[in-house]
Amino acid sequence: VRTIGDQLISGSEAALIELVKNAFDADSRFVRITINPPGSLLGGRQAGEIVVIDNGHGMTAAELIDKWFEPANTDKVLRRSSPLGRRMLGAKGVGRFATARLGRYLDLTCASHADGAALEVSTLRIDWQDFESNKYLDQVDIPVHTRAGVPGESSGVTLQISELRDPWVKSQLSGLIHELRRLATPHGARENGFRIFLDLSGFTVEKHGFDGQS
Q1: What is the pLDDT of residues 137-172, one digit of tens each?
Q2: What single string gives the DSSP state of each residue in 77-129?
């Protein structure tokens, strides 16, 4: 899994772009990216964390197992438009490899209304190192926990990626911002009301030599 991810995805910036495309394809109104660089987190967590949140259609437990967990799934190739009519940006089925490229751990929470039913919330935790220590994919056990939604919850996906593989230096962030701006300009992106928010407040002059927000 790591080999495929590193070969298909050139770097952490490209990996994050894939996750933004997934949010767009899910008809989300926005995607919110927060990058907490290594050494900047409180409570003893010093390995860095990236959080990506959208409020799209989300995924049910069945979709997680049958589509998200299946490498190079052809779902987006077969249906080239989203339920609300957006032209799909993603087609390679590399979203899960993007999270593996970004960091060692993934905590995924997704909420979805399955066929118009009540909200269903599914969670899982992946240690991508498990895929390196096992010879075959079916030797990796990843429990998926599902519960009913509660008042105040809405559909969408939250990805918490921790123990980052890259330090996210200033040049990487500049490249990321450049690619996000390019992604926000294609025909239909603004017309569909899709907004991208990037929080770099974890980068400070004292610790990283530059102010992230500026």
Answers
A1: 777 888 899 999 998 899 999 999 999 989 899 999
A2: HH--B-TT-PBPS--S--HHHHHHHHEEEEEEEEEEEGGG-SEEEEEEEEETT
